[in-house]
Design a protein that fits this description.
Structural class: alpha/beta
Shape: elongated
Radius of gyration: 17 Å
Strand content: 25-35%
Distance between the termini: 24 Å
Number of strands: 5
Order of helices and strands: EEHEHEHEH
Largest sheet: 5 strands, mixed
Number of helices: 4
Strand order of the largest sheet: 3-2-4-1-5
Length: 145
Amino acid sequence: RTPAREDLFKWVGPLLPTKISVIAKKSKNLHLKSLKDLNNYRIAAVREDIGELLLKTKGIDPNSIFSTRSSENAAKIFAYGRVDLWAYEENVAMWNLRALGESADDYEILWVLEEADVYFAVQKDTDDALVRALQNALDQVKNRR
């Protein structure tokens, strides 16, 4: 759920917190003093995903961004060293890296681009009663913890 998408959907949530971050291999020993330092590296991002959009809106040179079609592709080019960094949701990025046989302990978060909450995006023409029912069901599940 982002300000740019707010009016495109009806929303149910929040489901869980999320962090869109810039990730590096620890062995590269990379350090950022400012966000502009990202322009010195090649950064994997999934095309039109929030990671790519945040990089662009924060002024990162588009020539520094290597866009892929999927997180699996981004994970591969990142893990195999074709790019220096990866901009993506932290938990999903680490899951993708583990799926390749990588250890999450070999990676670190260099910069958090944005913290937010994850929501279900529901089509605008969905009946409000159905959206409320979904929200109520989610609230009941969350309150059982």
